Amino acid sequence: MNTPSLSRAFALLLWRDLLLAYRRRTEMINPLLFFVLVTTLFPLGIGADPALLRQVAPGIIWVAALLAAMLSLDSVFRSDFEDGSLEQFLISAQPLSILVLAKVVAHWLITGLPLLIVAPLLGLLLDLPAASISTLLVTLALGTPVLSMIGAIGVALTVGLHRGGVILSLLVLPLYIPVLIFAANAVESAGAGLPIVAHLSLLTALLVLSTSLSPLATAAALKISLS
Amino acid sequence: MLRFFHQLGSPKHFYRIAGRWIPWLAAACAALMLIGLYQGMVVAPPDYQQGDSYRIMFIHVPSAWMSLFIYIVMAVAGAIGLIWHMKLAEVIAISSAPIGASFTFLALVTGSIWGKPMWGAWWVWDARLTSELILLFLYLGVMALYSAVEDKRTAARATAILAIVGVVNIPIIHYSVEWWNTLHQGPTVTKFGAPSIDLRMLIPLLVMAVAFKLFYAMVVLMRARVEVLQRERNAQWVRELVDIS
Known about the structure:
The structure holds two protein chains of two kinds. Chain A is mostly helical. Chain A is built from nine helices and no strands. Chain A has helices spanning 6-23, 25-46, 50-72, 78-83, 85-91, 96-125, 130-158, 164-191, 197-225. Chain B has helices at residues 2-8, 11-43, 57-84, 87-119, 127-148, 152-180, 199-231, 236-242. In chain B, helix 3 (57-84) packs across helix 6 and helix 5 (127-148) packs antiparallel against helix 6. The A-B interface holds A 153, 157-158, 160-161, 163-164, 167, 170-171, 173-175, 177-178, 181-182, 185, 202, 206, 213, 217, 220-221, 224-225, 227 and B 82, 134, 137-138, 140-141, 144-145, 148-149, 154, 157-158, 161-162, 164-166, 168-169, 172-173, 176-177, 179-180.
């Protein structure tokens, strides 16, 4: 039996995960609903003054995105762990880090990308100006993949645990802070008419760094968790 | 010399050698701490702006240094454990986590007590305070992961990975937070050439820093000894040690 090439293995696994997600469409909606719901809670909690909402909107939307990303993390490896596919990945001829990268990319396409679609709507609800909304989209596009990449390490470490969820948040949330800071600051600066190139460059740097390093760490963590 | 290090790698010899070192470390630590505290509390002059209240620095600054130092020790020991499968390195890494968390907590508490008269608030969202708080969360994460995994060898290796990921992230977190907001006084010790701190304040500070390092060395050996005993509880030498016939 000849083994498929790296890129083919990557594409096959990506396609498989997308297909699996498509067959379970309702599960895709849940993080999205959570994202909208959390954002709706804030005006109810802090008052509906448009000026106030405009001021805190970047932070609110980004914190909600952070939580939604974190909650959806569990599904990256869960079903593969339960039905044993994960062990098959481990013993396959392809490097585990490439397979992990495919899974994380698929996970982002399923749970991260939809956030981008509803985010403008939330921006409108919180009275964000148009310039901020476009920046919000750019920061979400750059930032949410970082969240998936970093989160994958945490999931890989906790995948064998029975109550991994709470520990996962403890492991992952502190590592999310830089993304939150740069992204929310960028949206805020855009609203104030300040330049945002520095923020976006830093976010891009985080994206490049996490994409290149996190699959390696995730693969190492998976090997330990499944040993 | 080489043989000594080789022996140190085996739990049985480590247990014996560490037991012999602990009293010496304790004595040196106590002596230095007494000297440092005396110099700091009595000999050092009051600050021209902060009066006597700056003296909490002699606890605050060494604990803040230790909080970072121990995290790095933990990550390095974890990496050694992962790469060369050295059980003892894993034990050291794991035993370091609670000590590091305590130092971080101490730095936060003393900083808060210091901040109240100086800045007029117990807590401000200043960059270094915030990154210290995040460091505490990182420590707690490591400890939570270790206690959650049943098999302790797997747990030690998993936490090693987490600690290494944390070490990569600490500078990023630190600078992102720094950039976000800063109010803290600038570093006054590490400037090259003439430090902007009075020598009579600097010396007790450094003495205290060394004393804290010795304290850490002592406590980590004590914790590591217990951890070794627990892990090796079925080994012959432990049975002989506790004299279960």
